[in-house]
Every structure is written in structure tokens, then in C-alpha cells.
Specification:
By secondary structure, the protein is mostly beta strands. The protein has 2 domains: about 1-40 and about 160-245, no CATH class; about 50-150, Rieske [2Fe-2S] iron-sulphur domain (Rieske Iron-sulfur Protein, 3-layer Sandwich). The chain is built from no helices and 19 strands. Strands 1, 2, 4, 5, 6, 10, 15, 16, 17 and 19 form a 10-stranded antiparallel sheet that branches.
């Protein structure tokens, strides 16, 4: 299992505003939303440079948002197949077999098919049914390409909103991030100092008093709150879904 990409669905900005009152310096944590995806569809952003298999035609990767077995996902989502066609175009396919709901394997150049390991149904690189007991094609996700290096896959039900609340503690203000979770989907908190900087994971805690030593938190289908310390005078936080290649 290789950790690869993440889904950025909500970003928040903060700043520390300072003033003097009766000779005493006072700072206040200010937070504002900068953007959020609309509706119930989330956008999975894929950096093609991170996936060597997708550099050539017939390349294929399988991305998991939660654990799964051969027979079914252990969580809210089936893995997503990202395949590169001979034309150079890409397709994003739901790996749920249309026969018995098993998890279809990535495209095999040797077999010239995506094969279901349960009952042998075969599908083309674009998800079209070739043979076997499957009654129809695999479902496709909407996909678009941004520039040469980024694919955007629209995943129904993946979107979520984040509520941000400054929380005073004995050691200073922290940021509470509250958001709904999907079962067995892992989340992390990312930070960057400005819109041009790269994202990096930051540690967070389950309590406003810490300890702030977690890098991932697994959802259970309920609302969750995590707490993160400001990383400087200004910056951006993002709650992200962890995606693995399997």
C-alpha cells in the first residue's frame, strides 16, 4: 500500500490580529473561509507525476478512500480505477462489478482487460463489458484535466463542509475544526503559509488542550472535531481525505 494523493475539499484562512489595551498586548485569532466545493460531490485531485503507471497508454491505478476486500469495500466507497487510454485520454471508473458487487482489479495489459476476481467478468480499459456474468458496463465518474499534471475526479457523496471555531485555552488560542465524516475514511489536516506554497500535514489533537500529536483520524459516519495550533501569524488550513494506491 502506497500513500499517494489527497482530496482537498475545504480551505480556511486565519490571521493573528494584535493590539494594545491599557499597556497590555492582546492578540485575537481571526478565521475566514476561502473556498469550498458546492453540493454533495467532492473533487479528487490527482497529481499525475505521482503515478508512473499513468505516464503511458494502458496505464492503470486503483485508488482507495477506505479499506476493502475482494468482495466489498470496508467503508463508504469502492476503489476508483484511473486508466489511461491509447488516445492519451483518462477515464475514472467505479470498481464495483455490475454482477455481484465485487471489487474489480486494475487494467492488465497482459489480459487486455480489468478482471473481476470473484466470477471472472472482463471489462475494457474504459469500463465497457467484454464478457462474463456482469450484465453491464462499470460506472464512470466525471473527470476533467487541469493542465498537463492534474486530473479532477468528481466523486458523489465525498464533499463535506468544515466549521471553524477559535478556541481559547490556558496556553493560547487553538482552532477547532468540525466536519461530518464517512465510515472508515481517514482525514488529515494540511497547512500552507500562502496560496503559492505547497501543502504539508500538521499534527492535531482530539482535545483543545492536546496533546497535538495525531496526523490522521478515521471517520465513523458521525461528526468529528479536531483541534490544531496556529502555525504562525497567518496561513491556510485544509481538512483532507487520505487516498491510497492499492
Amino acid at each position: 500500500m502506497q500513500l499517494q494523493r489527497r482530496t482537498f475539499l475545504k480551505t480556511i484562512a486565519y490571521s493573528m490580529a494584535g493590539s494594545l489595551f491599557m499597556g497590555k498586548e492582546i492578540s485575537q485569532l481571526l478565521i475566514g473561509t476561502t473556498y469550498a466545493a458546492e453540493g454533495s460531490t467532492g473533487e479528487l485531485k490527482i497529481d499525475l507525476a505521482q503515478f508512473p503507471a499513468l505516464q503511458n497508454p494502458n496505464g492503470s491505478v486503483r485508488l482507495a478512500l477506505n479499506p476493502f476486500t475482494t468482495n466489498r469495500p470496508n467503508g463508504a466507497y469502492y476503489p476508483i480505477l484511473i486508466n489511461r487510454l491509447q488516445s492519451g485520454d483518462y477515464v475514472a471508473i467505479n470498481s464495483r462489478c455490475s454482477h455481484a458487487d465485487c471489487v474489480v482489479n486494475p487494467f492488465s495489459s497482459a489480459a487486455n482487460a480489468c478482471i473481476c476476481p470473484c466470477h471472472g467478468s472482463r471489462f475494457g480499459i474504459d469500463g465497457s463489458r467484454i464478457s462474463g456474468p456482469a450484465p453491464r458496463n462499470l460506472d464512470q465518474y466525471n473527470l476533467r484535466q487541469e493542465g498537463e499534471e492534474t486530473l479532477i475526479v468528481e466523486v458523489p457523496g465525498l464533499n463535506y463542509s468544515v466549521q471553524m471555531t477559535p478556541t481559547p485555552t490556558a496556553s493560547g488560542d487553538v482552532v477547532e475544526l468540525s466536519f461530518p465524516t464517512q465510515d472508515r475514511v481517514s482525514y488529515e489536516v494540511l497547512f500552507r503559509t500562502d496560496l503559492q506554497s505547497d501543502w504539508s500535514a500538521v499534527e492535531f489533537g482530539n482535545s483543545s488542550e492536546g496533546p497535538f500529536n495525531l496526523l490522521e483520524s478515521t471517520g465513523n459516519g458521525s461528526d468529528k472535531s479536531v483541534f490544531v495550533q496556529p502555525q504562525g501569524d497567518t496561513g491556510f488550513f485544509s481538512v483532507a481525505v487520505v487516498v491510497t494506491e492499492q
